[in-house]
Design a protein that fits this description.
Helix content: 40-55%
CATH topology of the largest domain: tt1808, chain A
Distance between the termini: 79 Å
Radius of gyration: 31 Å
Structural class: alpha+beta
Strand content: 15-25%
Largest sheet: 6 strands, mixed
Shape: elongated
Order of helices and strands: HHEEEHEEEHHHHHHHHH
Strand order of the largest sheet: 1-2-3-4-5-6
Number of helices: 12
CATH class of the largest domain: Alpha Beta
């Protein structure tokens, strides 16, 4: 992910300062209201939002209120932030509350935080409505020098929102999971590759692709990776991509190549001679 230098600079200048602030309010057991105040300042100084233009507090949703909402330039909600006091350990009931706010507001992204722990969820609008934890980090211990943790900060920043980096971040997470990799391991292409490699390394050992498949499925990959609903979905997604690539390949193979451009139809020599004779006759005439 391409992270702008100005964002990295802002993190370096402000993260340590706010780690000290969070440690202080945690020590004095600050209440929720004071925690919201600190988070609003962090959203501006660390994450780049204008706290007067980009952030609204006590956002009303069906008769109840979410603590903070991030707005885009058209005043449309980008994501909701539900805040708990710094001393509160975030639990399932808090997650449900935050996700209910997001679902009722029709918002895809929800942050749950107590200033120290930050949890980013994507709401999946289906039947039933579901959720997925996309990112979780501790702001007191996060190391912005590592790419992974810097990305976690960037995707919820204004800089990241402007580049739609949160969607790219989510797409990467969707691909980099055990079910996708499990499906790729448990595939004919891998069986062929392993058999070929074993033949190269061990001349006197004979092994079939089916034997390799049995070993992978029974002794290497856990059953949940092969038999679960997530695995079935991963296989379906991979099959779709293969079919798409195959269509592109077929389309490319049937398209005329540069050296296959049809030449103008050649005129027989007899026709050329006849045309010359007729032209000479017209001239002499």
């Amino acid at each position: 992910m391409n992270i702008p230098a100005k964002f990295a600079k802002r993190i370096n200048e402000n993260l340590k300062k706010y780690q000290g602030v969070i440690a202080q309010i945690k020590k004095k057991d600050a209440n929720e209201s004071d925690t919201v105040t600190v988070i609003t300042d962090m959203l501006q100084d660390i994450f780049g939002y204008d706290k007067y233009a980009d952030i609204t507090s006590e956002y009303a949703i069906r008769g109840t209120y979410c603590d903070l909402a991030i707005l885009d330039s058209h005043k449309k909600i980008k994501f909701l932030i539900e805040v708990k006091a710094i001393s509160v350990v975030l639990n399932d009931s808090h997650i449900k509350q935050a996700l209910d706010y997001g679902a009722n507001a029709g918002v895809n992204w929800v942050l749950l935080t107590n200033a120290e722990t930050w949890m980013l969820y994507k709401i999946k609008f289906g039947k039933p409505i579901d959720k997925e934890l996309i990112s979780e980090f501790n702001l007191l211990t996060i190391n912005s020098k590592t790419d992974k943790e810097l990305e976690a900060l960037f995707v919820i920043s204004k800089d990241g929102q402007e580049k739609s980096s949160i969607e790219d971040f989510y797409s990467n997470i969707q691909v980099k999971n055990k079910f996708i990799i499990g499906c790729l391991l448990n595939s004919p292409d891998v069986y062929v590759l392993i058999r070929r490699t074993m033949k190269k390394l061990f001349d006197d050992v004979k092994i079939s692709e089916q034997e390799i498949a049995d070993i992978i499925m029974n002794d290497i990959i856990k059953r949940e990776i092969i038999d679960s609903e997530e695995s079935k979905k991963a296989k379906k997604d991979i099959d779709k991509i293969y079919k798409k690539l195959e269509r592109v390949k077929e389309k490319s193979s049937t398209a005329p190549q540069d050296n296959e451009i049809s030449k103008p139809e050649e005129i027989p020599d007899t026709q050329v001679q006849q045309d010359v004779v007729e032209k000479d006759s017209e001239t002499n005439g």
